[in-house]
Amino acid sequence: MPDEKTAAWKLKDIALHLGCPYEGDGEVEITGVASLENARRGDLVFVGQEKFRKQLEETRASAAVIPADMTCGRLPAIKSPQPQMSFIKAVGLFFSSYRPMPGIHPLASVSPSARLGKDVSVGALSHIGDDVEIGDETVIFPLVSIYPRARVGKESRLHSHVSVREDSIIGDRVIIHNGAVIGADGFGYLRAEDGSSIKIPQKGRVVIEDDVEIGANTTIDRAALDETVVRRGTKIDNLVMVAHNVDVGSNSILVAQVGIAGSSKVGKNVILSGQVGVSDHITIGDAAVAAAKSGITKNVPDGAVVAGFPNIDIREWRKMWVLLPRIHDYVKEIKALRAKVEELEKKVK
Amino acid sequence: MPDEKTAAWKLKDIALHLGCPYEGDGEVEITGVASLENARRGDLVFVGQEKFRKQLEETRASAAVIPADMTCGRLPAIKSPQPQMSFIKAVGLFFSSYRPMPGIHPLASVSPSARLGKDVSVGALSHIGDDVEIGDETVIFPLVSIYPRARVGKESRLHSHVSVREDSIIGDRVIIHNGAVIGADGFGYLRAEDGSSIKIPQKGRVVIEDDVEIGANTTIDRAALDETVVRRGTKIDNLVMVAHNVDVGSNSILVAQVGIAGSSKVGKNVILSGQVGVSDHITIGDAAVAAAKSGITKNVPDGAVVAGFPNIDIREWRKMWVLLPRIHDYVKEIKALRAKVEELEKKVK
Amino acid sequence: MPDEKTAAWKLKDIALHLGCPYEGDGEVEITGVASLENARRGDLVFVGQEKFRKQLEETRASAAVIPADMTCGRLPAIKSPQPQMSFIKAVGLFFSSYRPMPGIHPLASVSPSARLGKDVSVGALSHIGDDVEIGDETVIFPLVSIYPRARVGKESRLHSHVSVREDSIIGDRVIIHNGAVIGADGFGYLRAEDGSSIKIPQKGRVVIEDDVEIGANTTIDRAALDETVVRRGTKIDNLVMVAHNVDVGSNSILVAQVGIAGSSKVGKNVILSGQVGVSDHITIGDAAVAAAKSGITKNVPDGAVVAGFPNIDIREWRKMWVLLPRIHDYVKEIKALRAKVEELEKKVK
C-alpha cells in the first residue's frame, strides 16, 4: 500500500532523525504513530502537556514524544523543545497521504492542446480542457474538471470533483480537496427598471498562489474584472465562500463556512474563525483575528481581535455577553428604582 | 417508469395493509398520494390536525389518512393512532425512489482489486479504486469517486459526485446525497516561526455507521489520528461540516449548514438546528437540542435546550431577546431616573 | 480563444452601439475593458462617481464610460444616463464567457432514450439518464450528471459536477454553476418510539424557472410532495441551501450561504443577504430585504427591511446595536443610582 510505510525504526534512530535527545530504551522498535487512547504496542505517541501524565502512564504505546522540560516516565521518550513539530516529522516516517502513480489514465479525457509536465498523474474520468498547463509531479485525481486555459503549477494535488474554471491560475504545492470550485462566476447584477437582474459579465479570473490548501466544497469566485487572489501559504477549510475580487493575504487561515463578500481585502497572517461573514469592500489588517460567527462590517486594524456583528473588540464583546443574559435583572432593578424614586419624590415634595 | 409504481389499491386494502380501521366507501380506488392542495381524483391525502378540516372538505382527493380521534367527513378515511406514520407507509405502496439496475456500467472504471458484492450497481463514469469493498445491493450512481481501500456496506446508495476518500468505512443502508465528501483531510496546522503553516498529517479515517443519511455537499473530514465517527441512524442535512475527530452519537439530527469543529463529541438523539456552530473539544449531552444559529462554546448537559452564542438555556435566551430590542427605552429611563435623583439630592441636601 | 473577442472598435462606434454621446477623440481604438487600476492602453474603463476623478486622470486606459452629468477630463469618454449598464453592454463587445462547441463528446454517456434539441453540447464524461429532455443550444459541460426524466430548457448552461436529480424541471437560459445539486431528497423524518428516525419519502420535485442563475455548490432539495420552486429571474449565490417545498418568488436575490428551511415562501424582488437563515413555514413578503446573518423566525411583510435573530426592523436593530455594547456603562449607572437612592432613603426616612 503506497501510503502506509512499512518500515520499523528504532527509537534512537527516530531521535537522531529529529535531532532531539531521548531517555529510556533507545532500542525499542517503533512501527507506527497513534493517539494516546488508541495506541498499540509499537506505536509512538505525543504528549504536549504535563496534564496528560496519567494517560501517558496508561497507554499501550511503546514510546512518546514529550516536551524537553517534561520528565520521562515509564516509557522511553524523545524530548523536544517543539514536541508537536517533532511528532509531525515522526509521523512522516510512517505515513504519507495517498498518491496515485504518475501517468494518464486511459479513461481520462485530455485535450491534445494541454501541456502536461513530467510525472503528472491524471486519474480516470478526469477532463483536461484545451490549452491547460499542468506542472511536474502534479496529481489530478479521478473525476476532476479543468476548463480551458487554466494553469496548475507543480507538485499540486487536485482531488476528485474539483472544478477549475477557464483561465484560473493555481500555483505550486497547492492542495485542493474534493468538490471545491475555483473560478465560477462572481455574483454581480444590475437591477433593471422592470425589477429583473442584468448579469454583470465576470471577465476576471482567480489566482491561487503557492502552498495554499483549499477545503472540500469551498468556492472561490472569479473576478468581475481583474483577479480574485489567495496568496501564498494561506489555508482554507471546507465550505468557505470567497467572492469575486477578494484578496486574501499570505499565511492566513479561513476556518469552515466563512463567507467573504466581494472586493474585501484580508491581510496576511489573519485568522477568520468558523462561520465568520465579511461584508463587501472591507479591509482586514494583518494578523487580525475574528472570533467564530463574527459579522465584519467595519474595517479591522492590524493585530485586532474582534467578535460580534457588527464587529467590536473581543474584550468588549466578552464583557457584553456576560451582562446581556442578565438584562432581565437590570430591567427589574430599573423598575424598583423608579418606584423608590417616585416614593421619595412624594415624601420630599 | 421504475419509481412510480402503477398499481391501484382499494382503500379497504390499504387500511388492511396499515392495520387501521377505515370509514366511508372502502371500495374507492386509490392510485397515488398527494398534498391536500394538489391532490387529484384517485389520490390519498394526509390530515394530521382538525384545523385542516376546511382543506380536507375541499380537496379533490379520493380519500384521506386522519388521526383516530378525528371524525371522518365527506371523504372516506383511514383512521390511525399514528396517522403520519401510516401515511408514510401508504406512500411506499405507490412510490419508491429512483434506483438504477444492478450491474457495472461499461463506462465505469472499477479497479480489478475492488471486491463488489451481489447485485451491486456501479453507474457510468464512476471510479472505484484499488482494494475497495462494496456490499450486496449497494448502488453507486454515475460519477461517484471512491478512493482506495474504502469500504461501503450493503444496501447503501451513493449519489453522483460523492467522494469517498481512502480508508473510509461506510455502513449498511447508508444514503449519501450528491456532492458530499467523506474523508477529506482535517484542517490542522502548526504555525512555524516565520508565520507559515505546517500541515499536520491527517492519518486517521472516517467511520459512518449503519442507517446514516448524509445530505448534498456535506463534508465529513478524516481524523488526524484515530477516527471521525457518525453513529448509527444519525441524519445529516445539506452543507454540513463535521471536522476531524468529531464523534456524533446515534439517532441525532444535524440540520443544514451546521458546523462542528475538531474533536467535539455530540451525544445521541441530539438535534442541532440550522446554521449552528460548535467549537472544538465541546461535549454535547444526549437528547440535547440547540436552536438555529447557536454558537456552542460551552458543554451542553444531557437533555438541555440551548440557544445563542455563547449558548445559554433557551428560556433565558427567549426572555433576553424580548427585552434587548427595548434597550433604547431602558436607557432613556435610566437617564430620567438620574435626573430625578439629582433633583432629589439637591432638595434633600 | 473562443471567449476573448479580438475585434478592435473605435470609441465613436461603441458610443453609437450604446446609443450614447461621447466627448473627446472618437477615433481612439478600443481593444478591451478593464478596471481603472489595471487598465492598459486600448482599454475602456468605467467611472460611476465624481469621487473616482483622480484615478480616472491617472489610469492608463484609452477611454471611459462616465455618467451623463460628469465632465469629461483628459480621456475621451462616453456619457450615459445609465453608465454601469452601458459599460456592461460595452464589455459584451469584447468578452463572452467560455462556451464549448455543440455536439456530444465521444466520452459522454447519453441514454438512447434522452431527447436532445438542436445544437446541444454535452461535454466529456457527462451522464444523461433515461428519458431526459434537453432544449436547443443548451450546454452541458463535462462531468455533469442528469438523472432520469429531468427536463432542461433551451440556452441553459450546466457546469461541471452539477447534479440534476430525477424528474427535476429546469427552464430556459438557466445557468447552474459547478457542483450545485438540484433535487436531492428533502430532509424529513418521523421519530419512532425507539428514538430512531423514519425517512419520509421525498416524492416531489424541483422546478427552476427561466433565467434563474444558481451558484456553485448550492443545493435545492426536492419536495416531499408537490414542488420546490425557484421562480423566473431569481439569482442564487454559492453554498445556499433551499429546503424541500420552499417557494422563492421571481427576481429575488439569495446571497451566499443563505439557508431556507422547509415550506417557507419567499416573495418576489426579495433580497436575502449573506448567511441569512429562514425558519420553516415562514412567509417573506415581496421586495423585503434581510440584512446579513438575520435569522428569520417571524413573517416579514412586503417591503420590510429586517435584521437580527429573531428578526426585527433594521432601524430598531441598528439602534439596539449602538446601545448594547455600552451595557457595561448602563449597569454601572444602575448601581450608582441604587446607591444614591439608598442614601436618599436614609436621609428622607
Describe it for me?
Three copies of one chain form a homotrimer. Chain A is of the alpha/beta class and 349 residues long. Chain A has three domains: 3-96, 3-Layer(aba) Sandwich (Udp-n-acetylmuramoylalanyl-d-glutamate--2,6- Diaminopimelate Ligase, Chain: A, domain 1); 103-315, UDP N-Acetylglucosamine Acyltransferase, domain 1, CATH 2.160.10; 317-349. The first copy, chain A, is 17% helix and 27% strand. Chain A is built from five helices and 40 strands. In chain A, the strands form six sheets. A twelve-stranded mixed sheet of chain A has the order 8-11-14-17-20-25-28-31-34-37-39-40. Chain A has a ten-stranded parallel sheet with strand order 9-12-15-18-21-26-29-32-35-38, with no helix packed on it. In chain A, strand 22 (189-191) and strand 23 form a beta hairpin. The longest helix of chain A has 22 residues, at 327-348. Chains in contact: A-B, A-C, B-C. At the B-C interface, helix 3 and helix 5 of B face strand 23, helix 4 and helix 5 of C.
Pick out its properties:
homotrimer; 349 residues; alpha/beta; Udp-n-acetylmuramoylalanyl-d-glutamate--2,6- Diaminopimelate Ligase, Chain: A, domain 1; UDP N-Acetylglucosamine Acyltransferase, domain 1; twelve-stranded mixed beta sheet; ten-stranded parallel beta sheet; 40 strands; 17% helix; 27% strand
Any guess at the CATH architecture of the largest domain in chain A?
3 Solenoid
Widest beta sheet: strand line-up of chain A: 8-11-14-17-20-25-28-31-34-37-39-40
Which of globular, elongated, flat, extended, rod-shaped describes the shape of chain A?
flat
Give the structural class of chain A. Answer: alpha/beta
Structure summary, number of beta strands of chain A:
40
What is the distance, rounded to the nearest whole angstrom, between the alpha carbons of the first and last residues of chain A?
93 Å
Global mean pLDDT of chain A: 95
Q: Kindly provide the radius of gyration of chain A, computed on alpha-carbon positions and rounded to a whole number of angstroms.
A: 27 Å
* Major beta sheet summary of chain A: 12 strands, mixed
Helix content, binned percent of chain A:
10-25%
CATH C-level label of the largest domain in chain A = Mainly Beta
**Please, how many domains of chain A?**
3
| Name given to the CATH homologous superfamily of the largest domain in chain A | Hexapeptide repeat proteins
Q: Largest chain-chain contact?
A: A-C, 70 and 67 residues
Distinct helical segment count of chain A: 5
List unreliable stretches of 5+ residues of chain A: none
